[in-house]
Amino acid sequence: xxxxxxxxxxxxxxxxxxxxxxxxxxxxxxxxxxxxxxxxxxxxxxxxxxxxxxxxxxxxxxxxxxxxxxxxxxxxxxxxxxxxxxxxxxxxxxxx
Length: 96
Fold this sequence. Notes:
- By secondary structure, the chain is mainly α.
- It has 6 helices and no strands.
- Helix content is 65%, strand content 0%.
- The protein is globular.
């Protein structure tokens, strides 16, 4: 998967690394894997880490689909499933 790293670089820092590492364990269970539950968990974690959602959603979209342009990021995550979402976050963390 090709990722638009140029879109992410200006917003990428250690704070985002820690946030997305936490996402891999802090997301809803597979049996509750739907867009609203994912969004709620994502927002709660962002609030806990004091990071604005606007700083995270574009990065999350690039992690999931490779581009900063696309449908709603939580809809994407719900569609591809928990396992694929976590795998794509982990792969992106190695690249960014």
